[in-house]
Structures are given as C-alpha cells and as structure tokens.
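Anyone opening a protein record will find just a pair of labelled lines. A complete record is shown below as an example:
=====
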Amino acid sequence: MPRLAHRLLACATAGALWTGALGAVAVTTEVMATASPAAALDNGLATTPPMGFNDWNAFGCNVSEQLIEQTADYFVSSGLKAAGYTYVNIDDCWMTHTRDAQGRLVPDPVKFPDGIKGTADYVHSKGLKLGIYEDAGTATCAGYPGSLGHETTDAQTFADWGVDYLKYDNCNNKSDGTRQDYINRYTAMRDALLATGRPILYSLCEWGVNSPWEWAGDVGNSWRTTGDISDNWASMLSIAKANMPLAAAAGPGRWNDPDMLEVGNGGMTDAEYRSHFSLWSMMNSPLLIGTDLRKASAETLSILSNKDVIALNQDTLGKQATVVSSTGGAYVLTKQLANGDRAVALFNSADQAQHISTTAAAAGLPERSMYGVRDLWQHADYESAGTLSATVPAHATVLLRVSAGNPGDAASQPPLLDTGVATQGTDHIEPGTTGTVSADVTDLGNLPALQVSVKLNTPAGWTVTAAGPTTSPALPTGKTFSAPWTVSVPAGTKAGVYTLSGTVAYTNPADNRRVTVPLTGGVPVLVPPPAGTHYLSDLDWTSATNGWGPVERDESNGETAAGDGHPISLAGTVYAKGLGAHAPSTITYYLGGKCSSVSAIVGVDDEKNGKGSVEFLISADGKQVADSGVLTNAMGGKPLQADVTGAKNVQLIVTDGGDGNDSDHADWANAQITCA
C-alpha cells in the first residue's frame, strides 16, 4: 500500500499488527456490520460528518504554519467555508523528535514559528477550526513522539493550544492484537480529551483492523474503516466497496471514515473524482479535502463545493446510504433524508458505459403518480412517473434527489429522460472500419417530450453521419426514440473504450420551455493481435484494474503512479518483459478468435522479501482455462499456460489468495500470446 506502507515502515519494524490485516481491510468487498452499533460519544460534536482539510494526501511531512494559514485563507476566499468546510487539520510531522522537560510535545519551531497555539489563533480568527494529529503508540507513523502513556498531558496540551480536532493513528502501538487492547488505548485518549473540558472532535485511525464500527461509537466521533486511500481508481473503488456495508454503524456523532478525499490530486479523471465525492457524500463520510487548494482547478473546486451533493452528506437525519443492488459493477445506492426525500446514486464501477435502472419505490419512497427528481450534478429538476434510470459512463455516477411530496410541485418540471449511446449489431468497432450506433431516448415522465432533437459528437478524427431520423415531434411517456448513426473509426486508432457525447433537446409541454440534456455512451474499439508470438506488454489491453496503482508494463507494480516499479524479478531471475500487477487485478485483451495460447512465468515479485500470496487465473470468454494455485513470495516463479483457441477475449486475473492483498505484487513475467 502506497502511503500506508510509507507511513508505517516504523510500525512494521516495531512489531505492530501487520500480517495481512491491513491489506485485507483495504480491498475487502464483503464486510459485515453489527446490527446494534454502540451509542454515540456524548461530546456534542460531529452531529453531521466533519468537513475540512487535511494536509497528508498532498503534502506528506511537508506541513507548515504557512500552509495551514494559507489554506484557511483560501477556505474563506473561495467560498469553501460558506459551503460547510470548517476544520483545517495538521497531520503527522508537526513536532520535534523529543518532548520538553515537562513531558509535553514541542511544535517544530521551523515549521511552526508561532507554535500550534499561534496557528490555531489565526485559523480561529477566520471563523474556522484547527485539527491536529497524534498516535496511540510510542511513536507516530513518521517516527515522532506518540501519545501512548502520555494521554492526559497531550490532551491538555491540545486543549491549551486551542485544538478542535484530533486524528489519532495506530502506529508503533505495542499491541497484543486483542480488541480489548485497541479499545483501551483509544478510550484512554477519549477520557483525557473529555477531562480537558474543551470540545475536541475525536477521529480514530486504527485502519479498521479490529472492526471499530462494532465498538467505537461511544469512543470516537469517527473511525477509519480501511487502510489509507491512494490517488487512483482501484484504491478509491476498493475502499468504497469496503465501507458500503457498514451503514448500520453510522449516525449523528459517530461516522464510518473511509479516509480523506483525493479530489484534485491528478490520479483520476474528473468523472472519477465526481464519483469519489458522490460516494463519500452518500456514505456520510467525513469530507476532508486532501489537495493543494492553492493550485486547485476550477473543476476541482466545482466538485468540492457542490452544495447539492454536500447537502446529502450534511443531512441532519444522518443515515448512511445502503446498497439496493450491485450487479456487474452497476450499483444503486439509496439514502434516506430528513425531509422524506431519498438520494439515489447510479454508480458505474465498470470500464464501459452501462445502463443502470431502479425505481422510486425501490429507493424507499411511497407510491405516487409523480415524483420530483433533481439531478445533483446537472443542477436541474425533472418529474418522473417512478422509473429512475440512465446510461452511465464508465467510472461515473448519476446522483439524484427524489421527492414524493406534493405532485403539484413537480408537475411544471420537464419529464425525466433516459438517454444513452450504444453500438448496434456488434459489441465493438475495429480501426479503419465503420459501425452503427444508436442514440436512444426514453421518456420516464408523465408527460410527453415534444420536438425531440438528437445531436451526436465523436472524438477528433472520427466521422459520424445520421443513418435515420434524428428528430421526433413527440415522445410519449414510457416510449423510446432511437436515432441511428454511422460512425467511422480512423485506421491506427488504439484499442480502448471511446466516449461519444452529444445532446438531446426537447420541449416541456407544461410550460413550452426548451430543455437540453447530455447524451453519452461508450464505443469499444478493439484490435486483435497481429499474427505471430508477441509479448503482452507490447500490446494494448482492452481494460485493466488493479488493487493498488496501475498495471505496469515491463516492471513490477509500484503501488502509486505509472512507472514507479522495478525490474520484474522472481526467485532471483530478472525478466525484461512482463506485466506488473497488484491483487486484485484483471487485465483484458481482445483476441477476435485469432489466437491459440497464452503463457507466462507467474509469482510474487522478489521486492516483497517473503511477503505476499496470490493466485493467477486465465479466463477465455468467461471460462477459466488456467489456474496457478496460491503462490507465495518464497515459491518464486511458476510456468502457466492456457489454450485460448477461438476466444474473443482473454483475461489475466490475480486474486489475493484468500488472505488480503498486503504485499501482493503479482508478476506476469515473459507473458506472451501466439496468434494466427
């Protein structure tokens, strides 16, 4: 794990609880919550999830008084304070390596020339609050003095400085591994904070090791449910999946915390960041910005300051969203709101656009003839007869607020439309050829959509021509209008899923207002391998997912950014070619029925020094054709070969071997494919 491994190097050498536990937490997709969570900590704080900033994701140990004060200034000037962001939080590395003669923590005088008290005073002068970091061990994750055994002194010091928020980590904890030890260590700081008389929000950070959702409700105001997040899609997705089943544990004053926001740090697309922010808001997660706001783009700020989405997170009922359905990467989540509305997220975790559908009744609303629907990213209002559906682009989320209030309130709104683009007659288009796509529009409202007009755009260099009518005088409720288009893909286009976007314009019959909504969909462009035997690392894959960081070509997985790995090495043999993955991982190649065999030397990379266990699988058109069995780091490389004759697609799959994905650096060394 990237930052987790970096921050906790000291913990690993000091005997903290590591063996597989954190990896299992980070990527677990099935987590069971207890039915009866503990009562909330009675300190009157965090009645809604805390919102603010934490420096670690963007700055690591490069924290300073200047950074914190400039961030506070920016909260005010940018409107983030007005949007609800309150806490400006200092993470690790703010102190010196020794306590003073009275046993108190000492702020680093270079980083904080005015001390934490001076910094707090400045933040408070802006109408904001200051947070700080410590650790329930003998040292912090970066090796600074921990609070274990110093709880009373440190809590009073924080109170004297004017601290409003404490993040309490779990490194160098000297734990015997029992749940009671965790409870004791975190309760000791809770009691010390309460004894100061100062209201200090208490955020537990024990990484979900001992299922804090089962016991921490009356200990802290929030508790981390997973290992550290990383700024990539696979990390965010695995953490979201782990946090989704824990809704029963959350409520006012006690929140599940899947870690800080990565929005704006550059490792994901804007669509992925909108999904990240949508899910964290739906799950009542603390919204702690983790990017350098001084350099934030307009799009980053528009995501972080979306008041419609923030309102879901800050809803006073405090109900975390629950999963209504999840099939093939298509998720429907619903969240009950204080005024009786329901928020509905149509979340597509897959690598291609998907049609996702539910109903107002399935979301928990009573039966009505008409529902009011607000699209929280479009900031637009509609009416629906009950169906809520959309073609959702890959890794994107459609976020709706649905009301079953007075139907008259929604009657003047335009009918909700379900729009999307999909290929016709084939599941892909090859470079240098043409194909047909259909732009489909379905009326989900009670009234017809009038004067419907469809426009479609393509990527640069492509051409698109209408192959039939693109307008309709009226689209009755419940009916679909399909506009066919011929799309030409230029020769030389790389394999991948390409977005086709456009618009659908129509007239609202209730007030003759012209309405325009976005149209989007994905077209797979697939290229079969050329004849002969080729290294897979030299070919374009259709899609690739990874537990940490991206799949690497011709190097091991470095867990964070592309190109941060090392030469692939198994049992001392270095391989110049191959794929570096991290469980859980799936790499898909299009074969077009032209290939016969896949081969590789598979194993856990030598760089893990005895750690890690994985299982390698090869699947052809959904049928398993090879299985390595569970391999550990000590076992070195194992030859793996599969017959893929006639298959259209092949998938190289790595699982965590059943014990979590800590250190699961999985190499497909010398991976090759033979085609006719």
Summary: DSSP finds 14 helices and 37 strands in the chain.
